[in-house]
Amino acid sequence: MTDSTTTSVTTSDRSRRDVLLDVVIAVHSPTRRVDRAVASVLACPQARAIVVCHGVGIATIADQLRAGDVDPHDPRVRLLGFQDGQRSPTGPFTYGLEAATSRWVALLGSDDTFARRALDRMLTVGETRGSDAVVAPLRQGGRRLKNPLVRPTTSWRTRPLDPVRDRLASRSAPLGILRRTTVERLGLRLTEGLRTGEDLAFSARLWFSGARIDHVPSDPPYDIGTDAPDRVTSAERALADELGGVRGLAAQPWVADLPAPARRALAVTMLRVHVLGALARRVDGARWADDEPALLGDVARAWVALAPGAPAPLSRADRDALDVVLAAPAPTAADLVAAARRRAAAGRLATVLPRSLARVLDREGTLRRYVRYRLP
Description:
Layout: H1 4-18, E1 21-27, H2 34-42, E2 47-54, H3 58-67, E3 77-82, H4 90-99, E4 104-109, E5 113-114, H5 118-129, E6 133-135, E7 138-140, E8 143-145, E9 176-179, H6 180-186, H7 200-207, E10 213-215, E11 222-224, H8 239-242, H9 244-250, H10 253-256, H11 260-280, H12 292-306, H13 316-326, H14 333-345, H15 348-352, H16 366-374
Parallel strand pairs: 1-2, 1-4, 2-3, 6-10, 7-11
Antiparallel strand pairs: 4-9, 5-11, 6-9, 7-8
Helix pairs in contact: 2-3, 11-12, 13-14
Organism: Flavimobilis marinus
InterPro entries: Nucleotide-diphossugar_trans (IPR029044)
GO molecular function: transferase activity
């Protein structure tokens, strides 16, 4: 008769050999439903969950897993303790990535999940095509998100994504599966000290590195959780914190070395999504600290310097607001609040058409993007 201990060890060893993917989950609060995240990983027989307990006891997270019918002693579950005293996901995610040993790695928010067979499909795509990364489709609140906004062709069925033509710059987080040797070869690291935007440079470097990036929009998605009361990405923060990743990315030497179309695509996204997004979130004058108007202008100017043509495809409403941000001397908080309100109240034509009609059909233009959002 086989000894039970021997059987357990053999099963555990076999499980480790069969694992192709390590999914790193960083959890910093006992209120997060990390059991759902782990269960979604274990649904893929070739995946393992590395749960990094950031400032919270391993025993506490193990109890939560049991409460959600997940065995914390499952050979495909690793619970790691981590303390750095920082309120940033960078430390625990980096620690988990360094602990990974499988061919593929992935990052998963503790209140997010992978839909059924999402990991299986991405592994099939990655292994079959020799991908460096497979970008997961996204879903939030039951609605599919078109990000990245890929070309309306069938090229993604057999060919990798083009970082410019398929607008990969808009995908600020590396959600999907990543070949571990590619992460190591490119020296991809999350930016230390940031509570948000820590994955911006990591993602952009990967997208524009020449690595093979695959994506099947119709495949099962990565589900972004919406029920965590303390979700970091929705919290209010100082402008320096909010734009730290954007500012840091502009200073990366490799960004300046990118071909002009790539720099332009990246700069348009930084200006439209991050700079003007920060402006739109500050229509209340009380939210502006004394040094923040100048800071916003500095960040915007850094990206315009990298790609002087980046503002051209923006809508008239966006350009008008950006002109105020870029003004010298720096605008006052009242100037920026007024600009944000004018942008929010702009009519349809002003929010869609650029200043130059020659830019109406620009790939990064608002009209073309709107049309693409409506297409299948």
